[in-house]
Predict the structure.
Amino acid sequence: MTPIPMDQGLLLAAALFFVGLAGVLARRNVIFILLSIEIMVNAAGLAFVVAGSRWQQPDGQLMFIFILTMAAVEVSLGLALVLRLYHNFRSLDVDRVSNLKG
Amino acid sequence: MSGQDFICLLPLLLPAAAAVLIMLEISVYRSHAAACILTLAGIGAAAASLPLAAAYGPRQVTSLLVIDGFALFYIGIILAATFIVAILSYAYLRRVPGQREELYLLLLLAAVGAGVMVASSHFASLFMGLELLSSCLFALIAYPRGRDNIEAGFKYLVLASVSTSFLLFGMALVYAQLGTMEFTRLAAAGATGGIIYQAGLGLLIIGLGFKLALVPFHMWTPDVYQGAPAPVTAFVATVSKVGVFGLLLRFFGQVGLLGHAHMFFLLTLIAIASMFAGNLLALRQKNVKRLLAYSSISHLGYLLVAFLAGGPLGTTAATFYLVAYSVTILGAFGIVGTIPAPGEAAGGREADAIDDYRGLFWRRPWLAGVFAATLFSLAGIPLTAGFIGKFYLLDAGAGSSLWLLTLSLVASSGIGLYYYLRLITVMYLRPESGAGEEAGRPAAYPWAASLVLAALLMAIIWLGVYPAPLIDAIRRTVTLP
């Protein structure tokens, strides 16, 4: 099996990262925003795995495990807040969930 | 790890242990006072262990953390700010319905996260500290569960997560290029440069810029400052900023970022934009918390001047300014959080509109005096901590011949004077007859908050009149390799 070149791996990770970023900016539904953030975070994780395989070190995969843990924490907090948001605003549209201005 | 390693880590281990203790205590018996006292005891014990840890330092504890004078001094600032925020929260939460004890758990854990960040010497510990801090902040901001709190919490969650992904991607790129994640070894390997490494550093700056609310990445700040309960806003403005700025000083100082000409240029632009945008946007604000949010953007811009100046002088100036700014902003949000809005029952709206402060001097002269002192300090009027801090920033900037930055600092502070003084004038206006007057005698002010505010007022004036001991202490302990 030929190893995947680092450049191609990083390019894939960068593409995923921008797909996620575009989703955060364009989507109006809070659930989809959380999903897009997940894609961004995991793109960074993929980049770590690619980098780790280039140097033949376990560090990249270790960081990926940390990132998975962090993503789980963020999603659980995020969904808890989404429940409260829906309770308070009766909507999951970010344009309606916007009282704070000035 | 040896016993000495554990002694060095005591300032981080003790608050974490206190958090576990409070969690157990809550499950047995809920008591707001007990949770607060345990928190204060935990922080006090951690502060008492600082000299002990210093005796064994400087010391590299595994490859993740380094406990040196710099880390211990910044942990000291973080612990002191958390102590004050805990007392202010106690006064604040007594007016708010619902369960209160968990807030202290989150405060302690967030303080541990910030402490890990300033002591980190590896990307992994940096990331863990940052996440521990941010995840606690999401919950803290949304804690009282009102409409605005939830909205602010969610906004912070989205923007903090996006900025964390930028930071992570930047770290991955740096790692891909250099093959190490330890700061000291990055410094040795970083001289070779390379396009992937530069891109990684750029992404790291974006990620940290979000956390520090520097200008192109500042959009979240006013909403979060306004929506969070006032003591938590004070926490966001002090502990999280001190933690991230400490990290910035250590990491970019060691990596030698300022050697790259275009990175230096980029940061200069960010600093100037932050100073002017923060001060100009604050001019039109009618909400005190939003006004202080914009003012914090400009203050972080001022701090970047010291960071860009670099060297021991820059580090000393930045550290002193962080202390002065923390003391001042804790006082300001302490007042905003504990003053009842006129015409509102306890537990109602916070007094955050500028109109709520109309005639405050005639109703509560002492509070108005303390608030005026904090505003003078933010504006940088002589005899306050803010003046000496700004003086050191200018000194550092001029010492490194950063004339453009130094001039921007002076000019934008001039703009800032206007809105601070406007707020002060409003306080001394005669209240309109009838409107704005509280019915009957004003309710007693919580004594714990009064004590804290008195102490902060003394600290502001003391640092403004006689800063030499603190400056000496910073020079002796806060040194970066």
Summary: DSSP finds 19 helices and two strands in chain B. The longest helix of chain B spans residues 147-178. Chain B touches chain A at residues 123-124, 127-128, 131, 135, 138-139, 142, 145, 147-148, 150-155, 157-158, 161-162, 164-165, 168-169, 171-173, 175-176, 179, 181, 196, 222-223, 226-227, 285-287, 290 (CB under 8 Å).
